[in-house]
Amino acid sequence: MEPKGTERYALIYSATKGRISALFHINPTPRILLFFIAVLIKLLASALSAIGFVWSNSALLLTGTVIWLIWFVILFLIAAPQTDRLLQNKMHWLKPAALTIFTVLIVLGLILLIILTSYGLGVFKVDRLGEKQEQLVTAFENVFAYNDATALCHQATENLIEGGNPYANANVVSAMQQFDGSYDKTTPLQEGRFAEIFPYPTTQALEQIWLEALETPEQVPPELESQLGYPAGCFLLPAPFVLMGIEDIRIVYLILILPVLAYATYKIPVNMRLLFIGAVLVSLEIWNSVAAGETGSLYFPFLLLAWILPKRHLWLSALFMGIAVATKQVSWFLVPFYLVLIFRMMGKRKTLSVMAIVAAVFFIANSPFIIADPGLWLTSMMSPMTDNLFPLGVGIVTFVTGSVLDIQSSLIFGAMEVIIGIVAIIWYFRNCIRYPHAGPLLAVLPLFFAWRSLWPYFFYFDIVILAAVLIDEYGSKSSKQLAPVSVVMNKNK
Question: Whole-prediction pTM value?
Fold first, then answer.
């Protein structure tokens, strides 16, 4: 008799666990196993933060923030070479925990993929839901659709192809109309009718503004962010693919990400490749962000290449870092740590050369638009920092968005962000030899203290760290484990 319901899923789980258990017999180390725990921690933190935001629930928001902090700690342990020695006697529970997490996430991912591809998001609709449940279902339905940033980048790409200035022709209303975006994925400004609202406009208020905007799309209301606030790479990179007929920019993201992940896998020691592939597969936030059109998907592959290549192909590494810097501002936070790593590995002269390459790539990509209208370009670039944005995110700002603290100025958070960033750079300069791959983690740590500490800021850096650790600290041409990169760096000093 064919099993039904929960029995069927139990059989799927059991069979899957049996088939993949061999994966964890391929010489895993404590740091690699910790990664799978970190993935679960991050998914839990993201879920609690998202539900807390939708429900305006302070307890969930703050709990999510605490769990995010735990994720930072675990990611630092993954980056620290000493962790393998410190946790070697914990393998009796680390390995089963990692195996269970991997199996559960793979099974859930497959089930969700089958449901969504077979039935669509409408399958989650249930009659007579409570108000809060209805809010969650509505929010989930809009996850896999263009947000305002993605729509503006796609619009900018088409404007470029048509010969216009993408920065001068940005219009969030027409962009969201064209690409079927939802009003709740726009960015409100504390302007106009939202000037006295704090900490965030209600869904009803946003919808009202949006319905009015649709009546006259050419006139963007002051309450909505409409500037293209990214460097030129955000539309230059997708342009060739759009010219070839690709109509969904998310396909472009996937085309760029998959070969880079394949290359990183190739550079990883043979006995570690399956573990890395497994880690990538269960990093659901990467695939969710691609499906949701998060613009971070565009700079992620170049950031990954930049961080794993310096010891082998320095100039290519610098080129890819330049592309990332020319695409989105989040990558700027990694540049100081990248330069510190190059300086400690290779000295002043090569560091200056790398700086020149990164700067040249950035200005070559952006110079036509700087020359065309320097004021407009600069205003667009600075809009994420200068526009009157509402507090939002998963970091310390949840004390404000959760109505625990009544702070209505971003200055305190800006100061914390700068201080944490400076302290992180100083610490990394002093400890880079011992903790070379802590750089990406330290780069995004200041954003956790920012007025805007959005979920996607933290999505990709764990994969960057894991790939670098596997390649630099476990890899060798003879397939034997090398000394950690810190030892190699000491020899180069």
Answer: 0.88
